[in-house]
Design goal:
The chain is of the alpha+beta class and about 375 residues long. The protein is built from 8 helices and 15 strands. The chain has helices at about 5-10, 15-30, 40-55, 60-65, 105-115, 145-150, 290-295, 355-365; strands at about 135-145, 150-165, 180, 190-195, 195-200, 210, 225-235, 245, 265-270, 275-280, 280-285, 295-300, 310-315, 320-325, 340-345. A 4-stranded mixed sheet has the order 10-11-15-14, with no helix packed on it. It has a 3-stranded mixed sheet with strand order 1-9-8. It has a two-stranded antiparallel sheet with strand order 2-7. Strand 4 (about 190-195) and strand 5 (about 195-200) form a beta hairpin. Helix 2 packs antiparallel against helix 3 (about 40-55). It is elongated and about 115 Å long.
Length: about 375
């Protein structure tokens, strides 16, 4: 019996994906349809199928790795009829060998290895179900605009499934991974075939888990238990309204030692009474006295970080003009800060002293009169 690793041209520690890729390449190369009458190619085709039959099966591969060819006695390690002729309804008289019963399984395996999914594991793929995963969790946190500026640490309290510490999440009395299900061989699915079409459904024995607990832990339910939890979430400075944060692996624990889900936080930023936000920039309105607009001067405003900022108002500044204060906005993701835009307004006093009235009347009398039109 030849070394199956050498036949497929893969190293001893090759992954399942690498083995499948090498197998598909060699099967297409030595397929009898492409090499009609070539006895050498026909023998090579059989060798490739026999080698793949061993390496794709975890139990056969482990036996070969430990005992070599002697693990299979005088045989070649392949299933009966592997690589043989007959049984192909598409003509040509060739079967694909190994555990591929027909063209549909061959195509399915090729599509699966290429990343196109498929209807599930073939009867000979023996893939172990490793996709058990806990639920993702979602929580909403509301912060003020000023908290969004500085950042904030929020403590979130909730209840969810957590990993059982007694059995390390496996759900077994000996705290070791549960054995593969005998009915579905660890895939979590059983296959039924109707002619050319094959369908999969969750295994009725393990309910799709792929594992079977013989002696349960007793302190949990399949490795998980529900309890109160606390998570500290750091809301970063500059957080936008509607931003979603992700804490990988902080969601619900999965049964039977699977991977935990993720924890997502949706951040809502409340509107502010003074500032409006657009991206990293802030906008505010400043009421400037009429005399300051006309004569010029300085005003003092409060910034988002509770500091005092002196702003110079040029003489003749008009209401609704907009002034730009650089780097006085929100923290930016790229570093630095956005800008603060100051919209100029003014306040008209409701009560005037006699002196103020005379001054305004005198000012109004000195204004140049508008020329009247022809009509």
């Amino acid at each position: 019996m030849k070394n199956p690793y050498e036949i497929l041209g893969v190293p001893v520690g090759a992954t399942d994906a690498e083995i499948k890729k090498a197998y598909h390449r060699l099967v297409l190369k030595y397929h009898p349809d492409k090499n009609s009458g070539d006895k050498a190619a026909e023998e090579k085709f059989k060798e490739v199928n026999n080698a793949f039959d061993i390496l794709k099966d975890p139990q056969k591969r482990a036996a070969y790795d430990r005992f070599g060819a002697s693990a299979f006695g005088a045989g070649n390690g392949a299933s009966a009829g592997a690589g043989g002729f007959g049984g192909n309804p598409f003509g040509g008289g060739f079967s694909f060998g190994g555990d591929f019963g027909d063209m549909s399984e061959m195509m399915e395996e090729m599509l699966r290895s290429a990343g196109f999914g498929g209807m599930g594991a073939g009867r000979g793929s023996r893939r172990t179900r490793t996709d058990l995963r806990g639920r993702d969790l979602l929580h909403q946190v509301t912060v003020s605009l000023r908290e969004a500026f500085t950042g904030k640490t929020e403590t979130i309290k909730f209840s969810s499934n957590t990993k059982c510490e007694k059995c390390d999440g496996h759900g077994t009395a000996d705290a070791k991974p549960a054995a593969s299900c005998d009915k579905c061989f660890g895939t979590g699915y059983v296959r039924t075939r109707n002619g050319f079409f094959a369908m999969e459904s969750p295994c009725p024995e393990c309910h799709g888990a792929g594992r079977s607990i013989k002696k349960p832990c007793g302190a949990c339910d399949a490795g998980v238990k529900n309890k109160q939890r606390e998570i500290e979430v750091k809301i970063p400075a500059g957080t936008m309204d509607g931003m979603r944060l992700r804490l990988a692996g902080k969601g619900e624990a999965a049964p039977l030692g699977g991977s935990a889900g993720d924890f997502y936080i949706d951040v809502r930023v409340q509107p502010d009474k003074i500032f409006e936000r657009e991206g990293d920039d802030l906008y505010m309105t400043a009421a400037v006295p009429f005399a300051t607009l006309a004569l010029g001067g300085e005003i003092e405003i409060d910034t988002i970080d509770d500091k005092k900022l002196s702003v110079k108002i040029p003489a003749g500044t008009q209401v609704h003009e907009r002034m730009r204060m650089r780097t006085q906005g929100m923290p930016a993701a790229r570093g630095g800060r956005g800008d603060l835009y100051l919209d100029i307004g003014t306040e008209v006093p409701k009560k005037l002293s006699e002196k103020q009235k005379r001054a305004l009347e005198e000012f109004a009398g000195t204004e140049p009169k508008k020329k009247k039109g022809l009509f």
